[in-house]
Amino acid sequence: MAKPDSTWLTRKAAIPLNWEVLLVIVLIAAMVVGRVLSPVFLSPSNLGNVLADLTEVSLMALPMTLIIVAAEIDLSVASVLGAASALMGTLWHLGLPMPWVMVLVVLGGACAGLLNGLVIVKLNLPSLAVTIGTLALFRGLAYVLLGDQAIADFPPAYTLFGMDNLGQTWIPLPFVIVIIGAVVFTLLLHATAFGRSLYAIGANPAAAAFSGIQVQKIKLQLFVLSGAMSALAGIVYTLRFTSARGDNGEGFELSVIAAVLFGGVSIFGGRGSMYGVLLSLLIVGVVKNGLILVDVSSETLTIVTGVLLLASVLMPNLAARWRAMRDRRALAKTA
Amino acid sequence: MSRHSTTHTPLPGVTTAQGPLNLGAWGAAIVRSRETTLFLVLLLLIGGTALARPQFINLQNLRDVLLNVSIISLLTAGMTVVILMRHIDLSVGSTVGVSAYTVGSLYVAFPHMPVLVALAAGVAIGLVAGGINALLVAVGRVPSLVATLSTLYIFRGADYAWVHGGQVNATSLPEAFSGLATGLIGGIPNLALIAGALLLGLSYYLKHYRAGREYYAIGSNPEAARLAGINVERRVITGFLISGAIAGFAGALWLARFGTVDASTAKGIELQVVAAAVVGSVAITGGVGTILGAALGALVLGVISIALVVLHVSPFWEQAIQGALIVVAIAADTLLARSVAKRMMRKRDHG
Known about the structure:
The complex is a heterodimer of chains A (about 325) and B (about 350). Helix content of chain A is about 70%, strand content about 0%.
């Protein structure tokens, strides 16, 4: 899918139109359409809703971006979210103080990620297969912990955090975690040796290993990071909805992966940027919110996720084919 | 099915010509008959549960297991064809849901529709769904995981948009149709007989037809398969059509078995199907697996879920156990296959 080098054949097409620019245009278009469809769309409280609803998916999409750049995948994130939520409720009912509960839950998430990473790295198994298994396993553990009960008696000081805004602004307090996370993960991917090595691993793991990158160790770190962030997302989700349940966040993994791929990260690894993913998250949030405002049911909204996911892979593929065809024709003409 | 030998040594019979003296041959024999291992696991499960609760062994329980497993094992067989080629079809659950509701609504509209027409309608819907997946994967070059994840969402979303909280009840279904699930021939549920016949047919196709062997070739080494003149695209398209058609057919059977269907019918069942395939020693990395193994995998999971009920274990444990089984099965399978491959390499190098 690589763009052909800018030779005299293709110079005409060398417009600086990359995926991120396209995403900015789509985002603006989506907001304009949203404003036309519903007058409340651009109101501060609604924009706050857009961001609040993005919180958990964004927290999981940040590490997922790193993982997919390194040509792996983690399908278990939403199950870790659910297990974390269930663990949070269980520990709270055991009488632990809230700060300890949260620390333990994040540690638990890191352990879940460690399990994924160890099985994938030590046994050299495909992450897709392993995390389909742990998707069922961690969700199952969530049900083992709480069954079909819900725990809702969390202290008000913490649940208020889930609903409050930052100072006098319309930015929801939980979303501040996303903003901090976005800055940290953007720097991690684009400004550190660790981040560069992810691209090397994704492009060619054997070459990366030969050039001295500790591929296995880095992959292990990625899965631990993903587990911990998913657990954090579980805590935020639980506080936002004041409810610890085993089925919290069921199916979120698809939204997360859809957002990352729509952000221009290649499913084959080695390509993509955090900027694209952040833009794509905003687009997903805006589109979903707009559709909810015009009364589309949330189950039907899954069509949007599916179409975005498809388009993000199908469009570059078709574009590459079309480009290849045009180049061939141009070549034939000059021959 | 000794894929590792065929990729390295083109001579037939090389793998079986070794002496029975070394441990390697023994290990290889076990791996080659993974179905035997699975069968033993199945017997152990049934025996263990029966020892703990003797009332477990009764005709009603056995029939329940068969009924529960029939539909899953059919779906697993379809999935196997796809997984053999290193692809995956996550959209089967949504296809089952759409097909079940469509056939149900057809019965509401035409109460006197013949059973065969109902089944054909299910298959037709499955073929459309499978065709969409096939086009995306073979022509659009979308990785099957992404393509079928998307269609999982799109089919299910379309189902919700169309059904809108509606429901089809057993009262709308004619006796003859429900009889597909409730009827017995020689003490065995019709549903199990239908599934068994289809599984046998599919198994024969995979084992004895040129096309069937090509699925294995593609999964073992797609490049080599292409160079050997196999039309990979055509096989991929056929594979997804088979998986889709089976899912559509299973949707009609689902309606016959459960009677009541709505927009959330069979939601999430793709996980059980992948689990059954993996437990049944179908390698997720392609090229290895049989319909018999897949069916045994589905049976093992089905027996476990009934055994949990009989042993009074909370049903909330079921999913966790399933997940753990998937991980263990993948790890065990890969490690075994790898050690066998290593041994064969050594044999080739040292004679």
